[in-house]
UniProtKB/TrEMBL annotation:
This is Glycogen operon protein. Pfam families: CBM_48. One of its GO terms (biological process) is carbohydrate metabolic process. Belongs to the glycosyl hydrolase 13 family. Residues 13-91 form the Glycoside hydrolase family 13 N-terminal domain. GO terms for molecular function: hydrolase activity, hydrolyzing O-glycosyl compounds. It comes from Anaerosporobacter mobilis DSM 15930. InterPro entries: GH, Glyco_hydro_13_N, Glyco_hydro_b, Ig-like_fold, Ig_E-set.
Amino acid sequence: MNQLRFRKGTPLPLGATKENESINFSIVAQNCEVCKLVLLHKKNNKKNQYVPIPADYRTGNVYSIIIENLPYEEYEYVYEIDGQVIVDPYAKVITGREKWGKHNHYFDPYSLRGGFAFQAFDWKEDMPLEIPYKDLIIYKMHVRGFTKHTSSKTGKFAGTFRGVVEKIPYLKELGINAVLLMPIVEFDEILIEENYMRSPGTQDKKEEKDYEFINIAKDEDTYRETMLREVYVRDSKQEDKIRIPYRINYWGYGKNTYYFAPKASYAYEPTNVVEELKTMIRELHDAGIEVLMEFNFTPDMTQQSILDCLHYWYFTYHIDGFSVNNNVVSTKILSSDPVLSRTKFLATSWETNHNFTDTNCKSYRNLAEYNDGFLIDARRYLKSDEEQVNAFAYRIRRNPADYAVINYITNNNGFTLMDLVCYDVKHNYANGEDNKDGTDYNYSWNCGTEGKTGKKKIKELRRQQIRNALVMLLLSQGTPMIMMGDEFGNSQEGNNNAYCQDNAISWINWNNRVQNEDIECFVKELISVRKRQGVFGRENEYRMMDYQSMGCPDMSYHGTKAWYPDFSYYSRMFGVMYCGQYGSKEENKLNSYFYVAYNMHWENHEFDLPQLPMGQRWEVYINTAPTNEKNMRLNNRAVFVAPRSIVVLKSVDRNCETLLHS
């Protein structure tokens, strides 16, 4: 390579940006004495270039330099700041982690490098979908775990972005129109305790051959032995080695994350990760499915860096929304950002007491509350705890004006839906932490036996409870979110914290679609009902009053006696009526009256029914209990509801034939 030509760069934007035929490099280096740009040739180390950045190229704490006519396709880069190798936190591509689970960068500081992402991409006619929260059905997905299992039948694309593309027809058939992706940025999937890298003697052992890595989640016995015999272990067949216990960071939360770069090992061809990810997003959009990203920013991230990151993903990858951890992110800044005013944001809570600007959610509701509130109350009511009717009744109605509410009954940091009805307690021994990790507050019920069973009655009750949970979720106001695999009975064998399980425990098994076909069909039907009927998923919260003089309130609560709800301590049943005339006015929506009778008591109950307008009658539309003549008794005055079941009634013309969905 000829002598480099360089000049002072521009401090913003940070990272490596292309300016005509030159590359502008810019990095924050606080209290720095010597800052060097290191250009590393991909094939020939002799062509490496070390470029000291002069002190007068500094603006504040930002060092910037422009390299002219750099053949960037041949190079990668890092910085040396006061002798320490630093990978650019704004790097748009990271090399060195292309192979999932490889940890050589712990021994060679130059093996992890920044790359360049200047290639053009044909987005065709891709535009933001901007699906309103009221119409959204979210599917939370781990890109690797979604198709990594051989049963996914995605072949060589298993566990990659291209594997997700293969499954788009399935998502459409299910009725999904948004996916929330667990971290797809370049995180470190190797979790090693820092004290093992700093133990006595490690300074003299710099090569990978001097270490032996033990995956705690796979080899717990070897790990225990290592802990008992200290760090150094004598092996009869090998020289002294340092055994280092580690876990796989399967979920992608933690330190050493490069938030501007996509996860290379999630690509079929890691060197082509940018194009593969953009292609996946474009194909999802073409199918009418929004793409939301989950970010778990670390406390050392500045608010400016976080905003830069979100802007980058929005503009470069056409991301429709972000889930952020607001213990780090300022929700006030996000909610008032004019550029992202039509981009969805999910956070635990929002500061809605400050004055919003004209660009915020009042013109387009882009904010959403995303926490365990619905999960806790719905689970407790599902398992028939005392004093839960009032709390659950509040959850199914909740739909604030300032922000949407994301409802879910399962998430990645807890039981799957199948495990929720199969286990009373967590079974996390495979994680190598003596079952001490994961929450103890599962609000679950095993229906009589812990874990798998061959007892027919218990198996039938579990399926009934799953149907109950799905009705609670998909027929509530707010935006429903389904955890991947729940729609066909995915199980993690009672593990409620599979953060380190990169195996069949956390990968969804597509073979379950055959044995649990009934659950998947039930999910499809509920999603279809929600999309067709205007009373489910309204833009505004129900007011519990007849403010348009329609003859009954927009939404009303009932008990076993119509118009008399029982919210007492021991009550476990209540009914909800939705007035069809207060439903959505969109042309594609039907506006029938609906009555949902919830009975989480272990005894059957008869519910008196509110009177419908003249010429209409009630029809059983959905029943979560097994269908038989006894539990289908219905007249225009009352309906029989079996133990631990939900009956959904729909208004029809008196002359219509009865149709039963169960």
